[in-house]
Amino acid sequence: MKKFGLHALLLLITAFSGAYSQQPPDKINGYKVYRAKIIVVSSDPPQQSLDARDATVKIDKPKLGIPGMLTVTVEVGGEFTSFTQEGKIDLLQFRDISVNGIAVDVDDFKTPFEIKRGRLTRLPASVRGSIDITGVAKAAYKELTESKDLWNVTGTVLVFGRFKKLGIEFKRVVPIPLDLQMRNPLR
After folding, report:
1. What is the pLDDT of residues 1-41, one digit of tens each?
2. What letter would DSSP give residue 144?
3. Sign (positive/negative) of CA torsion 109, 112, 118, 120?
4. Residue 62 CB neighbours (<10 A)
5. Which residue, of 51, 65, 112, 131, has the fewest CB within 10 Å?
6. Has residue 17 been placed in a domain?
7. Is 64:70 a contact under the CB 8 Å cutoff?
8. Beta strand ranges found along the chain (DSSP E)
9. Total tally of structural domains belonging to the chain
10. Cβ–Cβ contacts within 10 Å for residue 167, how many?
């Protein structure tokens, strides 16, 4: 019986250690994952671009749309500068985006655009997102009870593109973690 208990314990330890030590995927949708040092800042309040080795991204002040029956839309523009790469961005995907803990469903940005090394590039259109009715209710309650001057924005943006290096084009996806503060647009 003791032998069975020891084997079961070893099996559990092995199973749980494998779950905690999983590495992120090497590829997403056929694009090889490339980890870059990218700094994301808000233009409102203005923030300094810290030590960005590869690129900086500045997100504009969000614009709230007219509330629908079950959602509220949000539009945000932005600009960025790449210091090391140039190429064509195919797609932006947004994962686990939240504002002050309220989930925001952000549409994929499917408008392709080009980037040039060392040049400021604006997104050709705004990124659109929506907050569902339960999120709107939570946000309204939080705004009434504990309104904040600055909102915390968290999540991940996946940048899918074809980047050039030494004249050769590579398909890469660059995950960009978001953790920034934006001024409350309701004030």
Report:
1. 454 444 443 444 444 444 444 566 888 888 999 988 888 88
2. H
3. negative
4. 23
5. 51
6. no
7. no
8. 27-28, 31-33, 38-42, 55-59, 63-64, 71-76, 78-82, 86-99, 102-103, 105-106, 113-115, 120-122, 127-132, 150-165, 168-183
9. 1
10. 5
Per residue in 134-144, pLDDT tens?
Answer: 888 888 888 88
- Identify whether 12 is part of a domain: no
The number of residues in the chain equals 187
Q: What is the pTM of this model?
A: 0.80
Both structure tokens of 131:
């907050």
Q: For the purposes of burial, counting CB atoms within 10 Å of the CB of 6, is it exposed (0-12), middle (13-18) or buried (19 or more)?
A: exposed
Question: Which CA distances in Å does 6 have to 11, 18, 123, 128?
Answer: 9, 18, 58, 54
Cβ pair 98, 155 in contact under 8 A: yes
Which domain, by its residues, includes 78? Answer: 24-183
